[in-house]
């Protein structure tokens, strides 16, 4: 299946992750047809943002509403692993929720893409194709 993301959005996510280190950065991914068109940075409201992430619920509700108005959907979310591990953690698996969502993990300045599944393991690696700005993709 795979996903596509504009290079400017990928750069925004990587910059957010770098700026929030040593805390885990997090945010939402909006788009359509497996194409990420926007990243919405979120406050990490986790009890321990150094080792986990939780997206502000008020932002999540607002983004659902705004995405529908703009003809988009929440395709998934992103977060960083300041420890450098590129794969989903046990905590990520426990919180995976809905199957079919894109999980981008920023580790070592690189984006790693996974799709949540209903089965164990909870994630499957997926392709992430970087699109140049303005591409029809």
UniProtKB/TrEMBL annotation:
Keyword annotations of the record: Hydrolase, Metal-binding, Metalloprotease, Protease, Zinc
InterPro entries xref list: JAB_dom_prok, JAMM/MPN+_dom, MPN, VirAsm_ModProt
Stored CDD domains: MPN_like
Protease in keyword set: yes
Gene3D superfamilies on file: Cytidine Deaminase, domain 2
SUPFAM superfamilies assigned to the protein according to its UniProt record, in alphabetical order: JAB1/MPN domain
The keyword Protease is annotated on this UniProt entry: yes
Every MPN domain range: 3-132
PANTHER family: CYSO-CYSTEINE PEPTIDASE
Protein name: Mov34/MPN/PAD-1 family protein
Species this chain originates from: Sphingoaurantiacus capsulatus
Lineage, uppermost ranks: Bacteria, Pseudomonadati, Pseudomonadota, Alphaproteobacteria, Sphingomonadales
């Amino acid at each position: 299946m795979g996903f596509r993301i504009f290079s400017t959005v990928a750069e925004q996510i990587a910059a957010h992750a770098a700026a929030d280190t040593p805390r885990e950065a997090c945010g939402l991914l909006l788009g359509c047809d497996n194409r990420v068109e926007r990243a919405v940075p979120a406050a990490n409201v986790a009890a321990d943002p150094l080792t986990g992430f939780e997206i502000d619920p008020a932002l999540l509700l607002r983004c659902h509403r705004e995405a529908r108005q703009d003809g988009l959907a929440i395709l998934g979310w992103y977060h960083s692993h300041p420890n450098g591990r590129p794969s989903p953690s046990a905590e990520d698996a426990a919180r995976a929720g809905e199957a079919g969502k894109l999980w981008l993990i920023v580790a070592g300045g690189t984006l790693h893409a996974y799709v949540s599944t209903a089965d164990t393991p909870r994630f499957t690696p997926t392709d992430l194709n970087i699109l140049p700005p303005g591409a029809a993709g």
